[in-house]
Write a structure and sequence with these properties.
Layout: E1 17-25, E2 30-38, E3 41-46, E4 56-59, E5 64-65
Parallel strand pairs: 1-4, 1-5
Antiparallel strand pairs: 1-2, 2-3
Length: 69
Amino acid sequence: LGRIRPRISPGEDIMAMLIRGGTVINHDHSKRADVLIDGGKIIAVGENLARPRGAEVIDAGGCDILPGG
């Protein structure tokens, strides 16, 4: 799979993105979780996160997620 990049144009606001169902891998553990990104920053990592209005949802089932990587 290729690298996921936000699809924005110059001057366009960065909208929220919810990455669902991947395996989040940190330096000390890994677990299946969702990752919520808003304004280009990770704001939540957890199970079954609520989708903010207007957020793009990416299905990461079967993929590894390396937050901040």
